[in-house]
């Protein structure tokens, strides 16, 4: 290129070395740094700096107007995660963006403010409705004796633009109310002013939601499988249309540990943002990142739900029941005893893992296996340390025979206490300023991922079960029928056992018109419903999903009842209703 420019007699052509230096300088100023990380297990991997990624989204004037900072009450189709229940209803109010920027003043939740009509209110949560910022708030009532009380039996809905004076204004004007005894006993005055005032130091303060997606991919260009793990971060405050544009050996939990460390570091070092200019008004802005949910393929989903998956069932209890059914040929009687268990939470999972670690410090394996079998809880990340502690306990008993088992356990537990951040799954131990990033519960916030669950799961099951029984003549007949819908039918039939998600999507979309079979019809109806990017009527949509899921499970049960227990992807279909309600469209 340099030679062409010189031949064209272009003036001031830089040398190649100068060009490379300019490139390096530009990359340093505008690029995303790649960080080298090493897990506690010694695996080395590399990560793009999430702090820089989030910062650039807020700093980009083309992106900033599209960032959603508040949950939204939908007045139309449900399309985004901020329309769904987790962000709009279920999240702790302290985890949402705490302030409303009125230009010349900032209004914070949990502190008294005055409206233009003179009414005193305490905003609880900022929401967007019909494109305008509103707030759920408690009204404040003034009594004849000069005291004030908070009417917290029912909230009111106000427009943010009608707010006139914030807490600091009222304090400066000496217009703060004198609270009655009942209000003081409930603790309202202790939250005023909101502590985030001091945190922001006059700058706007918002939260950014981050999703964590992980998958295993091959590191080879050929079809030879050489698995390694990849992890991806999504800035969930952006609309879906922005998110769907355009080789590590370390496990996902190992990679997430370093990712978590950076996010926690951002919470404790907000001054890193102080010299940055954001948005359209060239003003300083503070951002607190928080994790919304974890998206993974099914194999990782069961790991984040901390399940034991056996060849015979979802957990060892179901597996044992299945063995009895097969041996006794009393399938219906056995299946009637299958019932839903108690939902896991990260608190009871962490407590169970702590129990297993304490048992490991005694150097005996069997009690841990019994515990994992009884509860169905096992974490691959913590299991590495459990096995390490068992080995260390046994070695200490061999080299220090005078020490009792209790003394060895106590010594190892002391080490565990000093290193618990590395021992326990990082998805269970998120920390941050004001505990603001702890809205993630991996047992509840791992929604069904429809590529692996539906296309590479349910559709692949019925596709193999169908074409594997055909004769050559039947395959040729089907290929002719499939080609009628303008698909690569010959390719699909030639590589029927090696289809990828995109091709299986074509199969399920087209095959329902060529194969008159109850299972194909049931799965076809379910997949058509799931690929809805917008939900106009949520209740009707969820009712349709429930019927479609029931039809799929019923038809699978008619063909082979054992698959209901053996295949976790079929079990995950029962979670579609809850996940759509909590997170919005799954597509």
TrEMBL record:
Entry's transmembrane regions: 303-324
Highest rank taxon of the organism: Eukaryota
This protein's UniProt keywords: Membrane, Transmembrane, Transmembrane helix
Protein name stated in the entry: Uncharacterized protein
Lineage: Eukaryota, Fungi, Dikarya, Basidiomycota, Agaricomycotina
């Amino acid at each position: 290129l340099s030679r062409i420019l010189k031949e064209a007699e272009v003036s001031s052509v830089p040398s190649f070395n100068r060009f490379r230096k300019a490139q390096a300088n530009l990359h340093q100023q505008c690029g995303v740094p790649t960080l080298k990380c090493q897990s506690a297990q010694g695996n080395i991997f590399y990560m793009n700096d999430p702090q820089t990624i989030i910062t650039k989204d807020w700093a980009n004037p083309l992106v900033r107007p599209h960032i959603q900072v508040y949950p939204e009450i939908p007045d139309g189709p449900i399309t985004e995660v901020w329309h769904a229940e987790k962000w709009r209803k279920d999240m702790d109010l302290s985890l949402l963006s705490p302030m409303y920027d009125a230009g010349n003043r900032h209004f914070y939740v949990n502190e008294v403010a005055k409206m233009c009509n003179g009414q005193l209110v305490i905003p609880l949560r900022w929401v967007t409705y019909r494109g305008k910022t509103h707030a759920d708030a408690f009204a404040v009532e003034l009594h004849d004796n000069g005291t004030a009380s908070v009417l917290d039996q029912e909230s009111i809905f106000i427009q943010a633009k009608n707010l006139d004076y914030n807490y600091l204004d009222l304090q400066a004007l000496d217009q703060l109310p004198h609270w009655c005894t009942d209000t003081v006993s409930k603790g309202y005055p202790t939250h005023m002013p909101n502590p985030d005032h001091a945190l922001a130091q006059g700058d706007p303060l918002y939260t950014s939601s981050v999703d964590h997606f992980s998958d295993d991919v091959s590191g080879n260009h050929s079809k030879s499988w050489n698995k390694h793990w990849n992890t991806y971060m999504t800035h969930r405050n952006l609309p879906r249309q922005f998110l769907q544009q355009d080789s590590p050996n370390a496990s996902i939990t190992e990679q997430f540990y370093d990712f978590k460390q950076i996010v926690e570091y951002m919470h404790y070092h907000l001054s890193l943002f102080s010299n940055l200019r954001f948005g359209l008004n060239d003003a300083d802005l503070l951002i607190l990142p928080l994790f919304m949910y974890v998206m993974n393929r099914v194999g990782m989903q069961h790991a984040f739900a901390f399940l034991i998956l056996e060849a015979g069932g979802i957990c060892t209890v179901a597996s044992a029941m299945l063995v009895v059914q097969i041996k006794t040929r009393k399938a219906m009687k056995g299946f009637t005893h299958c019932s839903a268990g108690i939902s896991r939470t990260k608190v009871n999972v962490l407590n169970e893992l702590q129990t297993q670690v304490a048992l490991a410090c005694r150097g005996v394996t069997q009690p841990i296996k019994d515990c994992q079998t009884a509860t169905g809880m096992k974490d691959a990340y913590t299991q590495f340390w459990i096995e390490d502690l068992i080995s260390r306990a046994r070695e200490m008993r061999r080299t220090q025979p005078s020490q009792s088992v209790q003394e060895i356990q106590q010594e190892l537990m002391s080490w565990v206490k000093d290193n618990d951040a590395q021992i326990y799954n990082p998805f269970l131990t998120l920390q941050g300023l004001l505990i603001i990033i702890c809205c993630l519960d991996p047992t509840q916030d791992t929604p069904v991922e429809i590529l692996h669950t539906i296309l590479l799961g349910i559709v692949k099951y019925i596709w193999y079960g169908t074409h594997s029984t055909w004769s050559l003549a039947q395959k040729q007949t089907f290929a002719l029928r499939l080609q009628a819908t303008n698909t690569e039918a010959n390719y699909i039939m030639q590589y029927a056992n090696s289809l990828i998600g995109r091709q299986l999507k074509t199969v399920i979309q087209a095959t329902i018109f060529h194969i008159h079979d109850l299972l194909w019809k049931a799965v076809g109806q379910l997949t058509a419903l799931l690929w809805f990017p917008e939900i106009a009527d949520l209740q009707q949509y969820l009712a349709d999903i429930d019927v479609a899921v029931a039809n799929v499970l019923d038809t699978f049960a008619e063909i082979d009842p054992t698959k209901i227990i053996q295949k976790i992807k079929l079990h995950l279909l029962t979670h579609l209703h809850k996940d759509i309600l909590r997170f919005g469209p799954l597509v």
